[in-house]
Amino acid sequence: MGQIASGATPFDDNPGLKNALDKLERLTSLLRKPEPTNSVPSNPVHALQATTEAAFNPASPEIDVVPATGRKPRSAMSAAPTLLSMKQASAMTTLSVSSIKRMMAAGTFPKPVRLGESRIAFVDAEIHAWVRARIAERD
């Protein structure tokens, strides 16, 4: 592979590399083509995503009206709080389950929501707030 002749590209003397780059260009050009908006996507995952988005995105956006009281009304589509299991709370805080139980008994951890006789969960936003408070305490 010595010097490159004037006007020649670096892979002119390597047909395997040239073919590989040509193939790569053809494949990436196929990926760049957007699917028509009115047709159903051929990929089942994309079809499921499109169906889910259509189900959760209303056709007409809600109009944000502030009543005379100055308070915003609660939207019917407001997001429900996310609940975390004990294991998820443990993973999020990097605390062990036994440490969380000790802190709950001491009243230094967010209170759980009782879902059944032997099932509890934590509100995601409360766990995040608790973690942010721990971070703020270090300063």
Largest sheet: 3 strands, antiparallel
Strand arrangement, major sheet: 1-3-2
Count of DSSP strands: 3
Estimate what percentage of residues fall within beta strands. 5-15%
What percentage of residues falls in helices of 4 or more residues? Answer: 40-55%
Question: At the first level of CATH, what is the class of one domain?
Answer: Mainly Alpha
- Net shape: elongated
Mind sketching the topology for me?
Blueprint: H1 15-32, H2 44-56, E1 83-84, H3 86-93, H4 97-106, E2 113-116, E3 119-123, H5 124-137
Antiparallel strand pairs: 1-3, 2-3
Question: Gist?
Answer:
The chain has 139 residues and is mostly helical. It is built from 5 helices and 3 strands, in the order ααβααββα. The chain has a domain of 55 residues: Arc Repressor Mutant, subunit A, CATH 1.10.10.
What this model shows, in words?
- The protein is mainly alpha-helical.
- It has a domain at 83-137: Arc Repressor Mutant, subunit A (Orthogonal Bundle).
- Helices cover 45% and strands 8% of the residues.
- The protein contains five helices and three strands.
- A three-stranded antiparallel sheet has the order 1-3-2.
- The longest helix is centred in the first third of the chain and has 18 residues, at 15-32.
